[in-house]
Amino acid sequence: MKYIQQIAIAVIGGDSRQIMVAEALAKLGAKVNIYGHQPDRFSGEIQGHAELAGACHDVNAVILPISGINDQGLVRGDAPGQMIAIGPLMTALPEATIIMTGSFSARWREVAVRRGYLVYEYAEADEIAILNSIPTAEGAVQLAMEHMPITIHHSRVAVMGFGRVGQTVARLFNALGAKVTVAARRREVLARAWEMGLATHCLEAGSVFPSDWDLVINTIPALVIGREFLARLPSESVVLDLASPPGGTDFEAAAELNIKAILAPGLPGKVAPKTAGALLATAIPEILEKLLSNGGDR
Ligand code: NAP
Predict the structure, then answer these.
(1) Is the CB of 283 within 6 Å of ligand 1?
(2) DSSP 3-state helix, strand, coil percentages of the chain (rounded to 5)?
(3) Of the residues 101, 133, 219, 279, which should be mutated to test ligand 1's pocket, given the most ligand atoms within 8 Å of the CB?
(4) How many CA atoms lie within 13 A of 139 on its CB side?
(5) Which end of the chain is flanked by fewer CB atoms within 10 Å, N or C?
(6) Cα-trace Rg, the chain
(7) Does the CB atom of residue 190 touch ligand 1 within 6 A?
(8) CA 190 to chain centre
Protein backbone atom coordinates (compact mmCIF):
# COMPACT_ATOMS: atom_id res chain seq x y z
CA MET A 1 0.00 0.00 0.00
CA LYS A 2 2.02 2.88 -1.33
CA TYR A 3 0.15 5.77 0.32
CA ILE A 4 -0.11 4.38 3.84
CA GLN A 5 3.62 3.91 4.12
CA GLN A 6 4.14 7.64 3.60
CA ILE A 7 1.93 8.88 6.41
CA ALA A 8 1.66 9.19 10.19
CA ILE A 9 -1.46 7.85 11.91
CA ALA A 10 -2.85 8.21 15.44
CA VAL A 11 -4.83 5.24 16.75
CA ILE A 12 -6.92 6.34 19.72
CA GLY A 13 -8.85 4.43 22.39
CA GLY A 14 -10.97 1.35 21.81
CA ASP A 15 -10.12 -2.16 22.89
CA SER A 16 -7.78 -4.89 21.67
CA ARG A 17 -9.26 -4.54 18.17
CA GLN A 18 -7.74 -1.06 17.90
CA ILE A 19 -4.33 -2.46 18.80
CA MET A 20 -4.68 -5.00 15.97
CA VAL A 21 -5.51 -2.14 13.59
CA ALA A 22 -2.45 -0.18 14.80
CA GLU A 23 -0.19 -3.21 14.33
CA ALA A 24 -1.50 -3.79 10.80
CA LEU A 25 -0.91 -0.14 9.84
CA ALA A 26 2.63 -0.22 11.29
CA LYS A 27 3.36 -3.42 9.36
CA LEU A 28 2.32 -1.63 6.19
CA GLY A 29 4.98 0.99 6.87
CA ALA A 30 2.99 3.84 8.43
CA LYS A 31 4.35 5.76 11.41
CA VAL A 32 1.81 4.84 14.09
CA ASN A 33 1.14 6.61 17.39
CA ILE A 34 -1.21 5.03 19.90
CA TYR A 35 -3.07 6.54 22.84
CA GLY A 36 -5.13 4.79 25.50
CA HIS A 37 -3.36 1.42 25.72
CA GLN A 38 -0.78 -0.05 28.08
CA PRO A 39 2.72 -0.23 26.49
CA ASP A 40 3.03 -3.98 27.13
CA ARG A 41 0.06 -4.62 24.81
CA PHE A 42 1.61 -3.35 21.56
CA SER A 43 4.86 -3.94 19.68
CA GLY A 44 7.90 -1.70 19.42
CA GLU A 45 6.87 -0.68 15.91
CA ILE A 46 4.19 1.54 17.50
CA GLN A 47 4.88 4.71 19.46
CA GLY A 48 2.86 4.88 22.69
CA HIS A 49 1.76 8.29 24.02
CA ALA A 50 0.56 9.36 27.44
CA GLU A 51 -1.10 12.51 26.05
CA LEU A 52 -3.79 12.60 23.39
CA ALA A 53 -2.37 15.79 21.85
CA GLY A 54 1.08 14.17 21.59
CA ALA A 55 -0.32 11.13 19.81
CA CYS A 56 -2.15 13.35 17.31
CA HIS A 57 0.69 15.80 16.68
CA ASP A 58 1.56 16.05 12.99
CA VAL A 59 -0.47 13.01 11.87
CA ASN A 60 -2.31 12.69 8.57
CA ALA A 61 -5.03 10.39 9.89
CA VAL A 62 -6.73 9.59 13.18
CA ILE A 63 -8.39 6.20 13.70
CA LEU A 64 -11.07 6.12 16.40
CA PRO A 65 -12.88 3.01 17.69
CA ILE A 66 -15.78 1.29 15.93
CA SER A 67 -18.08 2.32 18.79
CA GLY A 68 -17.72 5.87 17.45
CA ILE A 69 -17.90 9.40 18.85
CA ASN A 70 -20.96 10.11 21.00
CA ASP A 71 -22.81 13.38 21.34
CA GLN A 72 -20.56 14.48 24.19
CA GLY A 73 -17.46 14.05 22.00
CA LEU A 74 -16.34 10.93 23.88
CA VAL A 75 -14.93 7.67 22.53
CA ARG A 76 -14.59 4.42 24.45
CA GLY A 77 -11.30 3.58 26.13
CA ASP A 78 -9.89 0.15 26.88
CA ALA A 79 -10.76 0.01 30.59
CA PRO A 80 -14.38 -0.74 31.53
CA GLY A 81 -16.35 2.50 31.53
CA GLN A 82 -13.34 4.57 30.41
CA MET A 83 -14.22 7.38 27.99
CA ILE A 84 -11.75 9.60 26.16
CA ALA A 85 -12.68 13.21 25.35
CA ILE A 86 -11.97 13.69 21.68
CA GLY A 87 -13.93 16.94 21.33
CA PRO A 88 -10.98 19.36 21.80
CA LEU A 89 -9.08 17.48 19.10
CA MET A 90 -11.82 18.13 16.61
CA THR A 91 -10.76 21.73 16.18
CA ALA A 92 -7.02 21.28 16.73
CA LEU A 93 -6.03 19.06 13.80
CA PRO A 94 -4.84 20.52 10.50
CA GLU A 95 -7.38 20.83 7.72
CA ALA A 96 -7.71 17.72 5.50
CA THR A 97 -6.78 15.32 8.29
CA ILE A 98 -8.57 12.03 7.74
CA ILE A 99 -10.73 10.96 10.68
CA MET A 100 -12.01 7.39 10.59
CA THR A 101 -14.45 6.28 13.26
CA GLY A 102 -17.20 3.69 13.52
CA SER A 103 -19.77 6.45 13.58
CA PHE A 104 -20.03 10.14 14.36
CA SER A 105 -22.85 11.73 16.29
CA ALA A 106 -24.47 14.26 13.96
CA ARG A 107 -23.13 17.15 16.03
CA TRP A 108 -19.49 16.08 15.81
CA ARG A 109 -19.73 15.11 12.16
CA GLU A 110 -20.83 18.67 11.45
CA VAL A 111 -17.93 20.09 13.49
CA ALA A 112 -15.42 17.87 11.68
CA VAL A 113 -16.75 18.60 8.21
CA ARG A 114 -16.89 22.35 8.89
CA ARG A 115 -13.28 22.21 10.03
CA GLY A 116 -12.31 20.62 6.70
CA TYR A 117 -11.48 17.12 7.93
CA LEU A 118 -12.10 14.15 5.68
CA VAL A 119 -14.53 12.05 7.66
CA TYR A 120 -15.18 8.32 7.17
CA GLU A 121 -17.64 6.27 9.25
CA TYR A 122 -16.45 2.72 8.80
CA ALA A 123 -19.13 0.88 10.82
CA GLU A 124 -21.46 1.73 7.94
CA ALA A 125 -19.19 0.19 5.28
CA ASP A 126 -20.80 -3.07 4.07
CA GLU A 127 -17.47 -4.85 3.97
CA ILE A 128 -17.14 -4.26 7.71
CA ALA A 129 -20.80 -4.31 8.79
CA ILE A 130 -21.63 -7.61 7.09
CA LEU A 131 -18.61 -9.44 8.50
CA ASN A 132 -19.13 -7.81 11.90
CA SER A 133 -22.67 -9.18 11.91
CA ILE A 134 -21.27 -12.71 12.31
CA PRO A 135 -19.80 -12.29 15.83
CA THR A 136 -22.82 -10.09 16.64
CA ALA A 137 -25.21 -12.90 15.78
CA GLU A 138 -23.09 -15.45 17.67
CA GLY A 139 -23.16 -13.11 20.68
CA ALA A 140 -26.95 -12.98 20.38
CA VAL A 141 -27.06 -16.79 20.49
CA GLN A 142 -24.84 -16.76 23.59
CA LEU A 143 -27.11 -14.23 25.35
CA ALA A 144 -30.26 -16.09 24.30
CA MET A 145 -28.89 -19.31 25.79
CA GLU A 146 -27.93 -17.52 29.00
CA HIS A 147 -31.26 -15.75 29.48
CA MET A 148 -33.95 -18.04 28.04
CA PRO A 149 -35.34 -20.85 30.15
CA ILE A 150 -35.92 -22.95 27.00
CA THR A 151 -33.85 -24.14 24.05
CA ILE A 152 -33.38 -21.99 20.99
CA HIS A 153 -34.54 -25.00 19.01
CA HIS A 154 -38.30 -24.68 18.47
CA SER A 155 -38.46 -21.34 20.29
CA ARG A 156 -40.58 -18.57 18.75
CA VAL A 157 -38.18 -15.80 17.73
CA ALA A 158 -39.04 -12.40 16.25
CA VAL A 159 -36.18 -10.59 14.50
CA MET A 160 -36.93 -6.89 14.12
CA GLY A 161 -35.16 -5.36 11.12
CA PHE A 162 -33.60 -7.22 8.22
CA GLY A 163 -30.47 -5.26 7.42
CA ARG A 164 -26.94 -6.58 7.78
CA VAL A 165 -27.30 -7.69 11.41
CA GLY A 166 -30.93 -8.79 11.13
CA GLN A 167 -30.24 -11.07 8.18
CA THR A 168 -27.34 -12.85 9.86
CA VAL A 169 -29.23 -13.16 13.15
CA ALA A 170 -32.33 -14.56 11.43
CA ARG A 171 -30.25 -17.02 9.41
CA LEU A 172 -28.34 -18.25 12.48
CA PHE A 173 -31.37 -18.69 14.74
CA ASN A 174 -33.22 -20.42 11.89
CA ALA A 175 -30.26 -22.78 11.45
CA LEU A 176 -30.46 -23.61 15.16
CA GLY A 177 -34.08 -24.71 14.72
CA ALA A 178 -35.87 -21.63 16.04
CA LYS A 179 -39.19 -20.62 14.46
CA VAL A 180 -38.09 -17.24 13.13
CA THR A 181 -40.36 -14.41 12.03
CA VAL A 182 -38.76 -11.35 10.44
CA ALA A 183 -40.41 -7.96 10.97
CA ALA A 184 -39.42 -5.15 8.60
CA ARG A 185 -41.07 -2.15 6.98
CA ARG A 186 -40.23 -2.82 3.32
CA ARG A 187 -42.00 -5.58 1.40
CA GLU A 188 -39.03 -6.22 -0.91
CA VAL A 189 -36.91 -6.95 2.16
CA LEU A 190 -39.57 -9.30 3.50
CA ALA A 191 -39.67 -11.08 0.14
CA ARG A 192 -36.02 -12.06 0.69
CA ALA A 193 -36.83 -13.31 4.20
CA TRP A 194 -39.69 -15.36 2.81
CA GLU A 195 -37.37 -16.77 0.12
CA MET A 196 -35.08 -17.91 2.95
CA GLY A 197 -37.97 -19.89 4.42
CA LEU A 198 -38.71 -17.44 7.24
CA ALA A 199 -42.09 -16.14 8.36
CA THR A 200 -42.60 -12.40 7.84
CA HIS A 201 -44.50 -9.44 9.23
CA CYS A 202 -44.70 -6.00 7.63
CA LEU A 203 -44.19 -3.15 10.10
CA GLU A 204 -46.59 -0.74 8.43
CA ALA A 205 -48.75 1.87 10.09
CA GLY A 206 -51.78 0.30 11.70
CA SER A 207 -50.45 -3.28 11.68
CA VAL A 208 -50.55 -5.09 15.00
CA PHE A 209 -47.42 -7.10 15.58
CA PRO A 210 -48.16 -10.51 17.15
CA SER A 211 -46.75 -10.95 20.63
CA ASP A 212 -46.43 -14.70 21.21
CA TRP A 213 -42.62 -14.73 21.24
CA ASP A 214 -40.11 -16.48 23.45
CA LEU A 215 -37.42 -14.13 22.18
CA VAL A 216 -37.53 -10.77 20.44
CA ILE A 217 -34.26 -9.64 18.86
CA ASN A 218 -34.22 -6.01 17.81
CA THR A 219 -31.79 -4.62 15.25
CA ILE A 220 -33.75 -1.46 14.38
CA PRO A 221 -32.12 1.75 15.66
CA ALA A 222 -35.46 3.41 16.47
CA LEU A 223 -38.03 2.98 19.23
CA VAL A 224 -40.00 0.01 17.88
CA ILE A 225 -40.47 -2.06 21.05
CA GLY A 226 -42.79 0.18 23.03
CA ARG A 227 -44.86 -0.23 26.16
CA GLU A 228 -47.97 -1.50 24.36
CA PHE A 229 -46.04 -4.32 22.67
CA LEU A 230 -44.09 -5.18 25.83
CA ALA A 231 -47.36 -5.40 27.79
CA ARG A 232 -48.63 -8.06 25.39
CA LEU A 233 -45.52 -10.28 25.62
CA PRO A 234 -45.67 -13.50 27.69
CA SER A 235 -43.99 -12.93 31.07
CA GLU A 236 -41.08 -15.28 30.28
CA SER A 237 -40.23 -13.55 26.97
CA VAL A 238 -36.76 -12.14 26.57
CA VAL A 239 -36.00 -9.00 24.55
CA LEU A 240 -32.49 -8.76 23.18
CA ASP A 241 -31.76 -5.32 21.77
CA LEU A 242 -28.76 -5.28 19.44
CA ALA A 243 -29.32 -1.79 18.02
CA SER A 244 -26.76 0.82 19.03
CA PRO A 245 -27.48 2.58 22.33
CA PRO A 246 -30.07 3.68 23.31
CA GLY A 247 -31.50 0.71 21.36
CA GLY A 248 -35.07 0.40 20.14
CA THR A 249 -36.76 -0.73 23.35
CA ASP A 250 -38.60 1.19 26.05
CA PHE A 251 -36.41 -0.27 28.82
CA GLU A 252 -38.21 1.67 31.53
CA ALA A 253 -41.52 0.12 30.51
CA ALA A 254 -39.91 -3.33 30.27
CA ALA A 255 -38.63 -3.01 33.85
CA GLU A 256 -42.04 -1.88 35.09
CA LEU A 257 -43.75 -4.75 33.27
CA ASN A 258 -41.16 -7.25 34.53
CA ILE A 259 -40.05 -8.24 31.03
CA LYS A 260 -36.40 -9.18 30.75
CA ALA A 261 -34.94 -6.71 28.22
CA ILE A 262 -31.23 -6.56 27.54
CA LEU A 263 -29.36 -3.88 25.61
CA ALA A 264 -26.34 -5.66 24.14
CA PRO A 265 -23.94 -3.30 22.34
CA GLY A 266 -20.41 -4.14 21.20
CA LEU A 267 -20.90 -7.91 20.95
CA PRO A 268 -18.12 -8.57 18.40
CA GLY A 269 -15.49 -7.09 20.73
CA LYS A 270 -16.86 -9.11 23.64
CA VAL A 271 -17.50 -12.53 22.12
CA ALA A 272 -14.85 -12.71 19.39
CA PRO A 273 -12.29 -9.87 19.81
CA LYS A 274 -9.68 -11.66 17.73
CA THR A 275 -11.96 -12.28 14.75
CA ALA A 276 -13.50 -8.82 15.03
CA GLY A 277 -10.05 -7.22 15.36
CA ALA A 278 -8.72 -9.14 12.36
CA LEU A 279 -11.54 -7.96 10.16
CA LEU A 280 -10.94 -4.33 11.16
CA ALA A 281 -7.18 -4.76 10.74
CA THR A 282 -7.81 -5.88 7.15
CA ALA A 283 -10.58 -3.49 6.18
CA ILE A 284 -9.41 -0.21 7.75
CA PRO A 285 -6.00 -0.06 5.98
CA GLU A 286 -7.74 -0.88 2.66
CA ILE A 287 -10.29 1.89 3.14
CA LEU A 288 -7.60 4.34 4.29
CA GLU A 289 -5.41 3.56 1.29
CA LYS A 290 -8.39 4.25 -0.98
CA LEU A 291 -9.07 7.56 0.77
CA LEU A 292 -5.42 8.56 0.42
CA SER A 293 -5.27 7.60 -3.25
CA ASN A 294 -8.33 9.81 -3.82
CA GLY A 295 -6.36 12.77 -2.55
CA GLY A 296 -7.15 12.53 1.15
CA ASP A 297 -3.49 13.06 2.08
CA ARG A 298 -2.00 16.46 2.59
P1 NAP B 1 -28.78 -1.77 8.67
O2 NAP B 1 -28.17 -2.72 7.70
O3 NAP B 1 -28.91 -0.34 8.30
O4 NAP B 1 -30.25 -2.35 9.05
C5 NAP B 1 -31.12 -1.62 9.86
C6 NAP B 1 -32.52 -2.22 9.76
O7 NAP B 1 -33.38 -1.42 10.56
C8 NAP B 1 -33.11 -2.21 8.34
O9 NAP B 1 -33.94 -3.32 8.20
C10 NAP B 1 -33.93 -0.92 8.34
O11 NAP B 1 -34.99 -0.92 7.44
C12 NAP B 1 -34.48 -0.96 9.74
N13 NAP B 1 -34.93 0.34 10.19
C14 NAP B 1 -34.18 1.46 10.40
N15 NAP B 1 -34.98 2.45 10.89
C16 NAP B 1 -36.23 1.94 10.98
C17 NAP B 1 -37.48 2.45 11.42
N18 NAP B 1 -37.60 3.71 11.86
N19 NAP B 1 -38.55 1.63 11.39
C20 NAP B 1 -38.46 0.36 10.93
N21 NAP B 1 -37.30 -0.19 10.50
C22 NAP B 1 -36.22 0.60 10.52
O23 NAP B 1 -28.01 -1.78 10.05
P24 NAP B 1 -27.21 -3.02 10.65
O25 NAP B 1 -25.82 -3.01 10.15
O26 NAP B 1 -28.05 -4.23 10.50
O27 NAP B 1 -27.14 -2.59 12.19
C28 NAP B 1 -28.34 -2.55 12.94
C29 NAP B 1 -28.05 -1.96 14.32
O30 NAP B 1 -27.19 -2.84 15.03
C31 NAP B 1 -27.31 -0.61 14.27
O32 NAP B 1 -27.79 0.21 15.31
C33 NAP B 1 -25.87 -1.00 14.51
O34 NAP B 1 -25.12 0.07 15.04
C35 NAP B 1 -26.06 -2.10 15.51
N36 NAP B 1 -24.97 -3.06 15.70
C37 NAP B 1 -24.88 -3.60 16.92
C38 NAP B 1 -23.93 -4.55 17.19
C39 NAP B 1 -23.89 -5.16 18.55
O40 NAP B 1 -22.85 -5.71 18.93
N41 NAP B 1 -24.95 -5.10 19.32
C42 NAP B 1 -23.03 -4.94 16.18
C43 NAP B 1 -23.16 -4.38 14.92
C44 NAP B 1 -24.15 -3.44 14.67
P45 NAP B 1 -34.86 -0.22 5.99
O46 NAP B 1 -33.95 -1.10 5.21
O47 NAP B 1 -36.25 -0.20 5.50
O48 NAP B 1 -34.28 1.15 6.23
Answers:
(1) no
(2) 40, 20, 40
(3) 219
(4) 23
(5) C
(6) 21
(7) no
(8) 24
pLDDT for 10-21, tens place per residue? Answer: 999 999 999 999
Tell me, using a 6 A CB cutoff, whether residue 87 lines ligand 1.
no
* Tens-digit pLDDT profile for residues 105-147: 999 999 999 999 999 999 999 999 999 999 999 999 999 999 9
- Residue 264 Cβ < 6 Å to ligand 1: yes
For atom 22 of ligand 1, which residue has the closest CA? 220
Q: Does the C-beta of 267 come closer than 6 Å to ligand 1?
A: yes
Counting Cβ atoms within 10 Å, is residue 78 exposed (0-12), middle (13-18) or buried (19+)?
Answer: middle
* Tens-place pLDDT, residues 44-93: 999 999 999 999 999 999 999 999 999 999 999 988 889 999 988 888 89
Q: What angle do CA 143, 139, 69 make, to 5 degrees?
A: 110
